[in-house]
Specification:
Blueprint lengths: L1 H24 L24 E8 L7 E10 L10 E11 L6 E17 L2 E14 L2 E15 L5 E3 L2 E5 L2 E11 L1
Antiparallel strand pairs: 1-2, 1-9, 2-3, 3-4, 4-5, 5-6, 6-7, 6-8, 7-9, 8-9
Length: 180
């Protein structure tokens, strides 16, 4: 009887070890906290990069029609209350006609900030500093102005009416651009 009791004790000890090994091999997923959901940020609260190009009207130039292009990249994070963009633009203003046609290229970079939102239309103001090159001469150029960004349907395409002052001469235009 003694021998039988020791065999039972050995079997119970082996069973306890087996149960412990099985318990330790189970995944501990039920004990870990679920991953935190990422914060929800709406598209309107998070600035998007933007590029655009178009035609401009410059009453001081002959011919009056000119061209421009620009790119704006957000420089603030989505969570910030103050939003700002780095904007780089180029205005191509013609001078003369025929064989004597030349262009003044004004390339500048600066800061654009949102002023107001009217329905789906975003209105920005900007100020830039750069160079104006016409033939062999160049000069420092500062610009300031405003642009409206008007959505075209439910696409990422936008109409961009704008006005700006370059060296005290006002010009304006209309372009088409895209958020990305």
């Amino acid at each position: 009887m003694r021998w039988e009791l020791s065999m039972i004790n050995i079997d119970i000890l082996a069973m306890e070890r087996l149960a412990l090994a099985l318990a330790l091999s189970l995944p501990a997923m039920a004990q870990s906290a679920p991953p935190a959901a990422p914060p929800v940020v709406t598209a309107s609260a998070c600035p998007a990069s933007f590029y655009a190009a178009g035609a401009s009207l410059n009453l001081q130039a002959t011919p009056n029609l000119a061209g421009w292009y620009a790119i704006a990249l957000p420089i603030t994070k989505c969570e910030k209350a103050f939003q700002a963009y780095s904007i780089t633009m180029n205005n191509l203003t013609p001078r003369g006609s025929g064989a004597g046609l030349t262009f003044t290229s004004t390339t500048s970079t600066g800061l654009a900030i949102p002023l107001k939102q009217v329905g789906p239309i975003d209105i920005y103001t900007f100020g830039t500093l750069g160079t104006s090159i016409s033939g062999p001469s160049s000069s420092l150029a500062g610009t300031w102005g405003g642009v409206a960004v008007v959505p075209i349907g439910r696409t990422t395409w936008r109409l961009t009416p704008w006005a700006q002052s370059i060296g005290g001469k006002w010009m304006g235009g209309l372009g088409i651009g895209r958020s990305y």
